[in-house]
User: Fold these one by one.
Assistant:
Number 1:
Amino acid sequence: VTHSIPACIGSVTINSKQLDNESPVSIFAVNKCYVTVQDGTFFDGSGFAALVREGYKVRSDVNITLEFRTTAAHGVLLGISSAKVDAIGLEIVNGKVLFHVNNGAGRLTATYEPRGTNSLCDGKWHKLQANKSKHHISLIIDGNLVQTDNPYIQSTSADTNNPIYVGGYPADVKQNCLTSKSSFHGCLRNLVLTKGQQAELFDFSRAFDLRGVFPHSCPGAEH
């Protein structure tokens, strides 16, 4: 067995002596146990998950769906960026959700701003769908649609061949369609990227790089 167990372990005794797990000599990728847990992946606000090491090609069309839960007003949700300007990005900035796309001719943004006292940062689950279809982009949050006009109608393809960064990204990685550097703090689940009829559900435990991310469970409520 070469991987860690996704579980809580407590009250370990060796030769009748209980181990002190409150002050370990060293610790790596171990979080505290929660009284109540939910399905999903917990991001502690310090890092990111990196998926598809060989590179993800956005090209002309992609549909992204995910659910998020947070109490923070800022945080990167997802970024795929080429070394040029072509890129897509999803982020929470000042409690708004922004979906950015650059097909090479310029950045385009769809912004969802919750109305009145409604908040996306209330610690409850919210459903997000971000769609890029050639030069059209749209954002649906909890069933509310936002679309934006695109003056760059000749430019239709985001030519990326780069990893998908979720919840943040390394300092040495360029992200052309993200304005925030803040790592996401909260929970994500059901991340699906669909191209045509092909839908891919991403399992964070299979990420090639995980920092500050706990893929198997979320605390039942933010502490």
Number 2:
Amino acid sequence: SNPLHREVHQDMEQPLCHYFIASSHNTYLSGDQLLSQSRAEMYARVLQAGCRCVEVDCWDGPDGEPMVHHGYTLTSKILFRDVAETINKYAFIKNEFPVILSIENHCSIQQQKKIAQYLKEIFGDKLDLSSVSTGDPRQLPSPLDLKGKILVKV
């Protein structure tokens, strides 16, 4: 493997929407989307492989704890908190460019508040809470501006 391929040589100062972003669908699944196991470690694997956008399907769980799983299937369930902690641990090991959490939200307001609490507690200053109010995509920050940041897309 050529070590030069691990470095970024492109201009990373353009608005975020100017880039192709390596994304993962059903990131939490270790196999097929009907019967397989949901595992927090899958986030560690894809983030270290260079993925910068991961999917988190959130559903109401027992005891007020939001769960991550593929809805209406027989896939196993994992705690949202465990997923967030895994992402926090592995997000920036291989590179510093932003990680986008693509959250598919099926939770009640009560458990959505719990998700927001975990996002703030676990990611701390890494969580980008700035909002982009303009409809002009040229005003979006660049990957360079967002180094080390976790973005939430719902």
